[in-house]
Amino acid sequence: MEDKIILLVEDNPDDVLLTERALKKSHILNRLVVARDGVEALDYLFGKGNYAGRDLTIMPEVILLDLKLPKIGGLEVLKKIREDSRTRLLPVVILTSSKEEKDLINGYALGANSYIRKPVNFNQFADAVRQLGLYWLVLNEAPPNDTRKIDG
Questions:
Q1: Whole-structure pTM value
Q2: Can you list the domains of the chain with their CATH numbers?
Q3: Cβ 74 vs Cβ 81: under 8 Å
Q4: Using CA atoms, how far apart are residues 18 and 7, in angstroms rounded to an integer?
Q5: Which of 23, 31, 43 is closest to 7 using CA atoms?
């Protein structure tokens, strides 16, 4: 399980720390890559900017995506992920504090695999992260990397 990457797209440093603590508490030892805004997330996924030259055959096993992000919002990031043949099949879990019904509807309409509201309580948050890790990193069967390159 350690070789599977989790991409956390989150601008709130407290939520990043909470997620890191929750992963450790749940013994999820995967590499966590943190993008602090929408531009950084897309740069990581497509090997641009600070991530130019990154091996694009190594993609995250799951993307945990906040919606309220600087530079490019989470829904726009999701749209760009789904538009590109290299990333369209990547599992994307929206992990947000938004209670807006339109965010929920738009998230699924743009191809989110799951939508989870962040619990306020740390123990509930840790349990949610543990369950996410168990499902997406252990139980879920992801498409092989070579199918992520298929266009159409």
A1: 0.88
A2: 5-138 (3.40.50.2300)
A3: no
A4: 15
A5: 31
d(CA 127, CA 134): 10
Residue 22 burial by Cβ neighbours in a 10 Å radius (0-12, 13-18, 19+): buried
* Strand 31-35, strand 5-9: pairing: parallel
Q: Which residues contact 60 (CB under 8 A, 6 or more apart)?
A: 4, 5, 6, 7, 33, 45, 90
End-to-end C-alpha distance for the chain, whole angstroms: 30
What is the tens place of the pLDDT at every residue in 32-91? Answer: 999 999 999 999 999 999 999 999 999 999 999 999 999 999 999 999 999 999 999 999
DSSP one-letter string for the chain: -TT-EEEEE---HHHHHHHHHHHHHTT---EEEEESSHHHHHHHHHT-GGGTT--TT---SEEEE-SS-SSS-HHHHHHHHHHSTTTTTS-EEEEE----HHHHHHHHHTT-SEEEEPPSSHHHHHHHHHHHHIIIIII--PPPGGGGG---
